[in-house]
Design brief:
This protein is of the alpha/beta class. The protein is built from 6 helices and 12 strands. The chain has helices spanning 10-17, 57-73, 135-145, 162-171, 182-191, 216-236; strands spanning 2-7, 24-29, 32-38, 47-52, 80-89, 99-107, 111-114, 117-120, 130-131, 148-154, 175-179, 196-205. A 5-stranded mixed β-barrel has the order 5-11-10-6-12, surrounded by 4 helices. A two-stranded antiparallel sheet has the order 7-8. The radius of gyration is 17 Å and the shape is globular. Bound molecules: ligand LNDFFVEH. Keywords: Glycosidase, Hydrolase, Menaquinone biosynthesis. This is Futalosine hydrolase. Pathway: Quinol/quinone metabolism; menaquinone biosynthesis. GO terms for molecular function: hydrolase activity, acting on glycosyl bonds. Pfam families: PNP_UDP_1 (PF01048).
Length: 244
């Protein structure tokens, strides 16, 4: 099982790496600086590559695509891609310190303003606004990690007001969290036909901006805890068994 985990920043990548006793070593490929966690042989060939791919959907898509292409060209493609990191939680569904696992990954601001309000690109006849992780894998991971399942929104601008938070909730009633990379990672994964997951540890409520109140340490610790439990599920998952 070959897994690519894309985070935005090195602190998030290192929080994922901290879940494992096996060391991570540099594994550069063109267009992406990967860290590879070396698991022992009894781990059924689990390979975990970690990528701090940059903040925002464009950087995330570009770096994830580079890693996916490089792996495909060497004949060792990834079986699953995970977008991971901290995120904002919609209240009261996703409190600070909780984990959110996406059952859909939806871009919330890719569209047009029209006289009738916001229109997603799909209504304009283009592309996609949502990617769906495999149901069975989401259920298993939510069960072992205790993560809440819901929609995770991708935004290019962090929400900074109660009005914007309410607007996003109105348009996406199932949204539990927002972050800035999931949809970019998912677009790259979809282009390669690889399943995608997104897991977010909530560092702050979505709403009026109060950067000083972000609980980044608490969220990074939750991310480490989640990956410690998630690895055995990934190790035993058979991507060819997808029934959903
Ligand atoms: O300053 C630090 O030590 C630090 C450590 C880890 C991560 C950061 C970031 O600022 C990461 C930015 C990243 O966080 C996501 N995020 C977090 N909260 C929100 C939110 O309310 N709305 C949207 N995105 C959020 C996002 O994915 C950014 O890439 C700093």
């Amino acid at each position: 099982m070959r897994v690519l985990v894309t985070t935005a920043v090195p602190a998030e990548r290192d929080a994922v790496a901290a879940a494992f006793t096996a060391p991570a070593s540099a594994h550069p490929v063109p267009g992406a600086a990967l860290s590879r966690v070396a698991f022992p042989a009894e781990s059924h060939g689990l390979v975990l590559d970690l990528l701090a791919g940059g903040v925002g959907p464009a950087a995330a898509a570009a770096s994830t695509a580079a890693a996916l292409t490089s792996a495909a060209l060497t004949g060792e493609p990834y079986d699953v891609v995970v977008s991971a990191g901290i995120g904002g939680g919609f209240q009261p569904g996703a409190p600070v310190g909780s984990l959110v696992l996406a059952d859909d990954i939806t871009v919330a601001d890719l569209g047009a303003e029209t006289p009738d309000g916001y229109a997603p690109v799909t209504e304009l006849g283009f592309g996609a606004v949502t990617h769906r992780p495999p149901d069975s894998l989401v259920r298993e991971i939510a069960a072992v990690t205790g993560a809440r399942q819901g929609s995770v929104l991708t935004v290019s601008t962090v929400t900074g007001s109660a009005a914007r938070a309410a607007e996003l909730r109105r348009r996406h009633p199932r949204a539990l969290a927002e972050a800035m990379e999931g949809f970019g990672v998912a677009e790259a994964a979809a282009a390669h036909g690889v399943p995608v997951l997104e897991i977010r540890a909530v560092s702050n409520p979505v709403g009026p901006r109060d950067r000083a109140a972000w609980r980044i340490g608490e969220a990074l610790a939750a991310l480490t805890g989640a990956f410690g439990k998630l690895a055995p599920v990934l190790e035993s998952w058979n991507p060819h068994d997808v029934t959903d």
